[in-house]
Design a protein that fits this description.
Blueprint (H helix, E strand, L loop, with lengths): L4 E4 L4 E9 L5 E10 L14 E3 L3 E2 L1 H8 L7 E4 L3 E2 L1 E2 L2 E5 L5 E10 L23 H5 L7 E5 L8 E8 L2 E9 L1
Parallel strand pairs: 4-10
Antiparallel strand pairs: 1-2, 2-3, 5-7, 6-9, 8-10, 9-10, 11-12, 12-13
């Protein structure tokens, strides 16, 4: 028995064919038309594994917004995919729609709220408040800094303090 056949391809497209009986009574396919298409589309979602450093955070939503329409077989780079910091992530969308060759990392932004303040440092006698920020001004919030010889004139010593939102706390040390 011969009938017209329409078949769908799993990767897209259709194939149509007619069957006619040959001289020996067996079916022979004729008028074959159409074709199955190569996989098409884009990568969706985000790479499964992205390196983070020092508290950096990768945002899958930001990656999808920047790279979600990347055509299979192409690459994408996004500097907006790292929240809470900086970084550039690059990856290739392979033929199956998966992200491969992921490169880059997200790192935490350096926040230095104590860069210009000496509030709280007056607790140490003979400290030179112009030297303290140059030695400890890049200290991150919640981190203790030790300054060696932040003292006035010929005084010597070592001072410790922890950076807080409005200055310095847990100040200790000496300048003698």
């Amino acid at each position: 028995m011969c009938t017209v056949v329409d078949a769908a391809c799993s990767s897209g497209g259709t194939i149509s064919a007619k069957c006619s009986k040959g001289a020996n009574g067996a079916g022979v396919w004729t008028d074959i038309q159409g074709a199955c298409k190569a996989p098409a589309g884009t990568c969706s979602g985000a790479p499964g594994s992205v390196q983070t450093v020092g508290g950096g955070v990768f945002s899958a939503a930001a990656w999808a917004a920047a790279c979600g329409s990347t055509t299979r077989g192409s690459g994408c780079s996004a500097n907006s995919a790292c929240s809470a910091g900086t970084g550039v992530i690059s990856a290739t969308c392979d033929a199956s729609g998966s992200w491969v060759n992921v490169q880059g990392s997200c790192t935490a932004a350096v926040s230095a709220p104590c860069a210009t303040t000496t509030a709280g440092m007056q607790a140490v006698s003979n400290i030179d408040l112009t030297k303290w920020p140059s030695q400890c001004g890049n200290t991150a919030l919640g981190v203790q800094c030790q300054a060696n010889d932040p003292c006035l004139g010929s005084k010597q010593g070592s001072v410790f303090a922890t950076c807080i939102a409005n200055g310095w706390a847990s100040v200790s040390g000496f300048c003698l």
